[in-house]
Design brief:
The complex is a heterodimer of chains A (307) and B (260). Chain A has 307 residues and is of the alpha/beta class. Chain A has ten helices and 14 strands. Chain A folds into two domains: 218 residues, P-loop containing nucleotide triphosphate hydrolases (Rossmann fold, 3-Layer(aba) Sandwich), CATH 3.40.50; 65 residues, Alpha-Beta Plaits (2-Layer Sandwich), CATH 3.30.70.1560. The radius of gyration of chain A is 23 Å and the shape is globular. Chain B has 260 residues and is mostly helical. Helices cover 78% and strands 0% of the residues of chain B. Chain B is built from eleven helices and no strands. The chains are: A alpha/beta (307), B mainly alpha (260). At the A-B interface, helix 2 and helix 3 of A face helix 1 and helix 5 of B.
Chain lengths: 307, 260
């Protein structure tokens, strides 16, 4: 069963901007799915249509086989959404916000209180439950929106850039939490600008650009398509000039750092052996850029050139 | 655990009302106190200082005569103000999205906010009635008519406030209707005078003011006297409530002011 299925979904805003141009998209139940795209690509519009915050211009969408035109209430009861912008009452307390949200989904107060304690504790907000939400830090506000979205235990959780502006430590703990939620059966659709985040978390991916899905594949397949990766090598001894090594193009960054583009056909062991033969000992190595970012930039730039 | 749609609607409705009650109580200095101060000033200035020179009106002491109108005026104003400010505030702060993404149908959202307006209208109505009793003796002739008039008027103006909030794009537009329409209608609604004192043409024009019918139906509940046909007044209030409810739900369905 598909958690989400859209066909020929279009959206033209009143100002004439065509945000979606016939989007066909299927997300399997239980998936951790990344929806990527540059600013203005149509990600938030797509989420807005699914959650009924945006009126679609054409096409169909269904959530767990509940069509949003014919069975909107049931479709919406399956969805939890964490939007890009803060959208809770800043004057209310976190406890009030999450308990009220549960009520909007038909969860009675005693059960809502139990879940509020569970999720606010899991997201490290329990100690802050009584103060006005406006007093929370940026990361806490993001976590509060996640707790709120989980109160009715949705089958599909949609997160629109949930870690924007959040420090690395908090982001990592949110990743762990989301992995755990997904492992327990919740389908997750994630949009993010941190491509590393999508690469770490998601099994499937769609890239949207100018209102069209330009790529839809398993994350692993997509990354396999990457032909070249750039590696950075830290050396034990100083390197005065970029060494000439047959078959490899090496660049010297500083006295103790070299950089090389390695294709899929090339062997790193071979490179290490050649460097060792020249008296250069490699202490450590890392990818220069996020792999997904490279693919993403290529796809989007390609469309920019040809589109 | 699957929750039936009926349970979602009922608990959702209750939650909106509880949230509105929480808001009324949290900012009681804005939601309850001003009505008491205003009503007290009206009683002191119009009732005691000027009223003592006006003499009896329709056979009642002037303070007695204006008391039901003053209570009704506050009920109408706070019902309207509650919904327009709460719903517009939710739009402005974007937390209206909490409701819009939920499975609650739009008619439950409208009903919930309306119930919040009615709740504040009744809270203020009770308090202003207590203030009135300090200044005037208020017999209750028809308790059913009294409660029904208060309820229906509050519903009508809560719904009107909701529609205002749907269209409002900024705080100025939240204040336009209360300032330029509601206040004049209140003052020409027979709160301070009997329309029988007006020239015939003005009496006829006054009949087009729904607040005149509401105030008189309410006064009928207290004093047993009215300038208008009480049955027509109730019919008008019911018809307005049904019409405005339908309009409010239709606007939400279409996403006017709430969805892109």
């Amino acid at each position: 069963m598909f958690a989400l299925s859209t066909r020929a979904l279009t959206k033209v805003y009143k100002n004439g901007v065509q945000a979606l141009r016939g989007v066909d998209l299927d997300v399997e139940q239980g998936d951790f799915f990344a929806l990527l795209g540059p600013n203005g690509a149509g990600k938030t519009t797509l989420i807005g249509i699914i959650t009924s915050l945006v009126n679609k211009s054409g096409g169909t969408a269904s959530v767990f086989e509940h069509d949003i035109d014919r069975d909107l209430e049931r479709a919406k009861s399956c969805i939890g959404v964490v939007p890009q912008e803060l959208n809770f009452n800043q004057f209310e307390s976190p406890l009030t916000i999450v308990i009220n949200q549960a009520g909007f989904y038909g969860i009675a107060r005693p059960e809502a209180r139990r879940r509020a304690e569970q999720y606010l504790k899991q997201l490290q907000l329990w100690d802050k439950r009584y103060g006005a939400a406006r007093g929370l830090s940026g990361g806490m506000k993001r976590r509060l929106m996640i707790a709120r979205a989980l109160m009715h235990e949705p089958r599909l959780l949609i997160l629109d850039e949930p870690t924007a502006g959040v420090d690395i430590e908090v982001r990592r703990s949110m990743w762990e939490f989301l992995r755990d939620i997904n492992a327990r059966g919740t389908t997750i659709i994630l949009t993010t600008h941190y491509l590393e985040e999508a690469e770490h978390l998601c099994r499937n991916i769609a890239i949207i650009d100018k209102g069209n899905i330009v790529e839809r594949d398993h994350m692993a397949n997509l990354l396999l398509r990457l032909h070249t990766e750039t590696f950075v090598f830290n050396t034990r001894n100083a390197v005065r000039a970029a060494p000439t090594v047959a078959g490899f193009m090496l660049r010297r960054i500083d006295d103790y750092t070299l950089e090389a583009d390695i294709t899929k056909e090339q062997n790193l062991n071979e490179l290490f052996a050649l460097l060792t033969a020249r008296g250069i000992e490699v202490l450590s190595m890392r990818n220069k850029v996020n792999r997904l970012e490279e693919i993403f930039m290529r796809l989007v730039e390609n469309r920019g050139t040809h589109g | 655990m699957s929750v039936s749609m009926a349970a979602i609607r009922w608990i959702g409705f209750q939650t909106i009302v509880i949230r509105e009650y929480g808001r009324i109580v949290r900012i009681w200095g804005q939601t309850l106190v001003p009505a008491i101060v205003t009503a007290t000033l009206y009683f002191v200035i119009f009732g005691s200082l000027i009223g003592s020179r006006v003499g009896p009106m329709q056979g009642f002491d002037y303070k007695q005569f204006i008391a039901p109108g003053l209570i009704m005026m506050q009920i109408i104003q706070v019902s309207y103000a509650n919904v327009v400010s709460s719903f517009f505030g939710a739009k402005f702060g974007k937390h209206v999205e909490e409701l819009l993404v939920s499975p609650l149908p739009n008619w439950i959202i409208v009903a919930g906010y309306t119930a919040g307006g009615v709740l504040r209208g009744f809270m203020v109505g009770v308090v202003v009635t207590v203030v009135s009793l300090v200044f005037a003796r208020l017999p209750v002739q028809h308790i059913g008519a009294l409660l029904a008039a208060a309820l229906l008027s509050s519903i009508v103006f809560s719904l009107a406030g909701f529609i205002n909030a749907i269209f409002a794009r900024n705080f100025d537009q939240v204040n336009w209707i209360p300032t330029f329409i509601l206040t004049p209608l209140n003052y020409f609604g027979g709160v301070f005078y009997s329309v029988s004192m007006l020239p015939v043409w003005a009496q006829k024009v006054s009949l087009g003011n729904p607040i005149l019918h509401m105030v008189n139906a309410f006064r009928y509940g207290f004093l047993g006297t009215s300038d208008v046909h009480v049955e027509f007044a109730f019919f008008l209030m019911l018809a307005l409530a049904a019409l405005l409810f339908g309009v409010a739900v239709m606007l939400l369905d279409r996403g006017v002011g709430t969805r892109d």
